[in-house]
Amino acid sequence: MDLTPVAEAVAAAEAVVAVGARTQWEVGGRAAPAVEVRAPAGIVRHDPGDLTVTVGARTSFADLDAVLAPHRQECPLDPRHPEATIGGILATGLSGVRRLRHGPVREHVLELRFVTGDARVVKGGGPTVKNVTGYDLPRLLVGSLGTLGVIGQVTLRCRPRPVCARWFRAPPRPLRLFRPSAALWDGEATHVLLEGTPADIDAQAAGLAEREAPTLPDGTHRGRISVAPGRVEALGATLARIPGARWCAELGVGTVHVAGDDASVIAAARRAAHDHGGWLLRESGGDDDGFGRSLPNLALLRRIKAAFDPPGKLAPGRLPL
Q: By C-alpha distance, which of 31, 65, 272, 275 is closest to 150?
């Protein structure tokens, strides 16, 4: 895909911010006013035999999934909103609930083409699964919230799509009994997602009650806590005492989703996260503080920012740099 129009827009502006579907627009810090730039959309190529697909960054996850489905393949990014763009998913770095089985979102990225703050078009990574040479720029950009470059084109690793996927209510310690793709706990019940062939799932789920897929907590104000997996149970007990808090933890991963109808819920959940050695990233609503504490290795982050964005024009306000 031709990223020249994106590069020209970046070069001409004093400040720019990449825009996709705006489904994750409030993650982290709120962007300051800036010229909005949009990456190309569409499928560049899909190689079913090599399990790779290349897309424009403004392609929605729903459109990507529709292309892969007839080939019994998928890319398990699993955003909360299917209309989220691939570029937005990578820029925020928020993994889906199947991270327990498939790994974090950065594991699915093979190659990125992006535009830096001084309007250079840069390629990082390689288009094949076996590529291992060079600096791992794709992982650096994942989760950078558009502050290092405007992602324009992405090559992703695909995986075989499971024949069957079913949710079950499980015992309190399911990870010792199963190999689930996801395990969600809300303080009252544990639910596991099993994927594979029907026979395999039946064998693993003997004696368990099947149920509909659980939904993540929602509300005007949402956050995502990262904590050591071994601290999830204690953190859950603390969150349960916050009035109005709705929460759900990903067991074995250490991600805890929390939501409420008032900003005070996120403020209290952030204090709880800090008390248990974790931190909370605002996903929507909340106050003006998206992170709650200084970023680690701030001096190094500023050096990286200066190398990729010398004019300091990319996504002002998204990261507290």
A: 31
Give me the helix-helix angle, 263-275 and 232-239, nearest 10°. 150
Per DSSP, the three-state class of 284 is strand
CA-to-CA dists, residue 42 to 67, 133, 152, 178, 279, angstroms:
10, 27, 11, 38, 36
Which pairs from 1-4 meet CB under 8 Å and 24+ separation? 1/40, 1/42, 1/44, 1/56, 1/113, 1/152, 1/153, 2/40, 3/39, 3/40, 3/113, 3/114, 3/115, 3/121, 3/152, 3/153, 4/121
Residue 153: its H or E element:
strand 150-157
Percent of the chain as helix, strand, coil, to the nearest 5 = 25, 25, 45
257-294 residue pLDDT tens: 999 999 999 999 999 999 999 999 999 997 777 888 88
| 44's tokens | 């560049």
Average pLDDT over residues 26-47: 95
Instruction: Give me the sheet containing 52-56, strands edge to edge.
Output: 43-47, 52-56, 150-157, 109-115, 121-125
**How far is it, in rounded angstroms, from Cα 286 to Cα 273?**
15
pLDDT tens track for 78-91: 999 999 999 999 99
User: Hey, which residues does 124 pair with through a beta bridge?
Assistant: 112
**How crowded is the C-beta side of 179, counted as CA atoms within 13 Å?**
7
Sketch out the chain's domains with CATH numbers: 4-160 (3.30.465.10), 164-211 (no CATH)
Span 109-143, pLDDT tens digits: 999 999 999 999 999 998 876 655 667 889 999 99
What pTM was estimated for this model as a whole? 0.94
Whole-angstrom distance, CA of residue 72 vs CA of residue 312: 43
125: phi > 0 → left, psi -120 to 50 → alpha, else beta; which? left
